[in-house]
Each structure stands twice: as C-alpha cells, then as structure tokens.
Amino acid sequence: MTNKLKNYIIPITATFMDALKLIEFNQMRFVVVVDEDTVVGVLTDGDIRRSLLSGKRLNDIVVPYRGFIYLDVNDDFATVCNKFRDYQADFLLILKSGKLFNIVTKAQFHLMLLEDIEYSADINYSDFDHGKLEHEVYNKPWGFYKSVLLSSHAQAKVITLFPDSEISLQEHMHREEHWVVIKGVGKVVCSNDLFDIQAGSYIKIPKRMKHKIINTSVKDNLVFSEVQLGEYFGEDDIIRHSDKYGRT
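RESULT FIELD:
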C-alpha cells in the first residue's frame, strides 16, 4: 500500500470526528474503513451528515456502508466501465484479497481515457492533472472547442464555430489535421482552393498547408471534429497569415 492510500483509511474503531478530519485532509469526500487490513466499508461526507442528523454524535464510532461497489485487482477495462456506468459511482476501490490495493475516481478514469493511457490497477491515479479535465473546454473569438483525446502522438477535438465566424488562415509545421463536419454548412480554404462543406464532408490538411474553415450560416453553429497527427501540438505551432479577430 502506498503512503497516499493511507490518507483514505480509518480503522473500524475510529469516530465520526476522525473520519471528518481525514476527509478534510484528503479532499476526496470519502474514507475507507478497515478492520486490521481488510476493507469492511466506506464512509462519505454524505453518510456522516445523515448519521449526525439521525442522532449520532461526532465522538461515536463510525458506521461504514458495507454494500460498497469495488473492483478486483484482476478486473479488466470493460468491468471498470460497466461499474462506473451501471452503479453511477463517483469512485471505485480496487481490492486484492480483501485489502485496499488502489482507488480510482470517475474523474481520474476519464483523464486516463483523455490521455490515451491503458487501464491498469496499479496506476498512481492521484498523480493525474485534474486541470486537463476541468479546463478541457476553451472559448475562442469564433466559438469553442472540447478536447476528447490528448496523447503524445495525437490529439482530437470537437470544435464549434458560431454563425458568421471563422478561424484564422493558418498553417502548422509539425502536425497534419483531419476534419469531419458534424453539423452545419460552410466553406474551407486549403492552399489556393475554396470549396463548400456540409455534414459528412471530410478534409485532410497536410503539414505546411494554409487553411481556414468558415461558418457561412448567419443563424446556425458549424460543428466539426478535428484529429491532429504529428509530433508536436503546441499553440506556438499555429502560424497565422490573416485573422478576422486581429490575432496576427
């Protein structure tokens, strides 16, 4: 067991006050209750609140919830998906022979998928950067985008262009892009070519090709998916040649 996991564990002889103090410390809104080393239940901040409202006192011994949903250390990816979905769980304990082996929250699981990391029971999920999940929607002068994959070899986004909006005429040195229009109508500039697009249109943009997408509708959004392939995806790889919003 790692030292970080110890920040979630209280003995079955602990009080509600002990549980609250540990929840305040770990900032995860739950603790794991053990009898010696064996997990016997969980206790959330909501469980504690309900216990106190029913007449329990802070110095009373905890009453853990024993019907908690958990994973076995050998469970596969499909089992993890099913348990998060079917039980609407915010977190899952990973047990090995009844003992706490790891903990994965739903947010951490989604971050794992976002970064294209293969599921494993022994990942140190607490080291994940939650900022990538919390700030994955970015607003721009032309609309907004949401990242759906952020790996070292590829990135993918769903991009929304507001009516009568357009991205800058730009090119990239280190990545190619693949666009599929999901909704709406517009025009695309690729090098010296200009052509109409609609739902279902596919556009490949090689490295170093000047390109731009325009929403020609005055009332409807244009939505498209963008897959970036290459070795570098930083914002400084956007070379703008002209821009409706003065960003050149």
